[in-house]
Design brief:
alpha/beta, Peroxisomal Thiolase, Chain A, domain 1, 33% helix, globular
């Protein structure tokens, strides 16, 4: 099987890219950067970063979670033609896998290059979420759960991940104080990292656990309870944005590039969609399976990884993904974050130097492509924001999750030239 490499990447600014006209109802909103603008910007940026032209692209994949609800746009793939007229008549495909939509797009594009039918492919991940009010946005996201017994009965994703957090707390016998301290350290690490990322949604969040723990329980500026035990600062953001990568065969990249970052291994594992069918909610079992597949294909272990972008949609999931990757023993990731592990100065592995979903932002369909773009840039020694201070990273990993731990996508990237 031939290997595939990333040869170009681009990440738009992440944020609430709307202009709010009515500061009382928050309902009168206009675009600052539209769904279409974001696709065009990311696609053009990645092609340019690859040093190619649109004529060189053989196919386009677009990952988007729920655009038919967020922006009333289905049939998304042909929007790729708007990136450049030269893309007209090229094959284009849209993928959906909740928050892992664009990782799955990347995997489908990898298979296309491996088949030999395509030489250069463009993958864009995108989501425009902030045009909807909170209730409509929450309902749109809830369609990514098992509707008959979750979204359709009023369950939200904070509520679903709260179930994982409660199971984790019970399994490892954490007191309320221990949980709050551990989750606050996770959130603070992401805010501190995002302060250095010019593309991040939030660059001025509380940068220490002490600041988060000192926030009031209610009112303006509070760390209110959202779905016990998850509080406001345990939750990722409602974000607009896009990211894109260009893929080609490693053989082609090696022949034409001075620096090459290869996709060394992938793991794609699906879990039961209904949370009720999972017995061990304190662990990402399908996530661990995806990690094993990706590490086996790449021929690496956790000890070989220098940098990681993990899916911290909620602080509990940063703990679970950190443990699933083998960076912490089960039940101990929170202690490791409290001990100051995983920052830019970590001797072993740095996690979410971008600020993660918690602070960089989480435009759900764009998140997987953004993770790949960010790790690629780190391995190319062109970091967006913080870079590891103890070593130049050579091997990185992305861990993107769709739904409540349902679609698990793990990618190992390796600098090979």
């Amino acid at each position: 099987m031939s290997k595939v490499s990333i040869v170009g990447a681009y990440n738009t600014k992440f944020g609430s890219l709307v202009d709010v006209k009515d500061m009382i109802s928050f309902k009168k909103k206009t675009d600052v950067a539209s769904f279409y603008d974001l696709i065009i910007e990311a696609g053009r940026g990645a092609i340019a970063d690859a040093g190619l032209t649109a004529e060189d692209i053989d196919g386009v994949w677009i990952g988007a979670c729920a655009p038919s609800r967020f922006v009333n746009q289905a049939h998304v793939a042909p929007i790729g033609v708007m990136i450049d007229p030269a893309l007209r008549l090229k094959p284009m495909t849209r993928t959906e896998a909740a928050c892992a939509s664009s990782s799955v797009a990347i995997y489908d594009a990898i298979y296309a290059v491996e088949s030999g039918r395509f030489k250069n492919v463009l993958v864009v991940g995108v989501e425009k979420m902030n045009l909807l009010d909170t209730q409509a946005m929450t309902t749109a996201l809830a369609t990514c759960s098992y509707w008959p017994e979750e979204g359709g009965t009023g369950a939200t994703f904070p509520g679903l991940f709260a179930e994982l957090a409660k199971a984790y707390i019970e399994r490892y016998q954490l007191s309320d104080t221990q949980w709050r301290e551990q989750s606050a350290h996770v959130a603070a690490s992401c805010y501190a990292n995002a302060a250095h990322n010019p593309l991040a949604h939030v660059r001025n969040g509380p940068k220490t656990a002490a600041e988060i723990l000192a926030l009031p329980e209610s009112g303006r500026g509070s760390n209110m309870m959202v779905a016990a035990p998850l509080r406001l600062h345990d939750c990722s953001l409602v974000t607009d944005g896009a990211a894109a990568v260009v893929l080609t065969s490693t053989a082609n990249a090696m022949a034409t590039r001075d620096k090459v970052v290869e996709i060394a291994g992938i793991g794609h594992s699906a879990e039961h969609l209904p949370l009720s069918l999972r017995a061990n909610k304190w662990v990402l079992e399908a996530g661990k399976d995806a990690v094993a597949k990706a590490f086996r294909e790449a021929g690496v272990t956790a000890d070989d990884i220098d940098i990681a972008e993990v899916h911290d949609c909620f602080t509990i999931n940063q703990l679970l993904t950190t443990e699933a990757l083998g960076f912490s023993a089960d039940g101990t990731a929170g202690q490791d974050y409290m001990a100051g592990r995983f920052g830019a100065d970590d001797e072993k592995v740095c996690i979410n130097l971008s600020g993660g979903l918690k602070a960089k932002g989480h435009p759900v369909g764009a998140t997987g492509a953004s993770m790949h773009a960010l790790v690629y840039k780190q391995l190319m020694e062109q970091p967006i924001g913080l870079a590891p201070t103890r070593k130049i990273p050579k091997i990185g990993v992305t861990f993107n999750v769709g739904g409540s731990g349902v679609t698990n996508c793990v990618t190992v990237l390796r600098r090979v030239k």
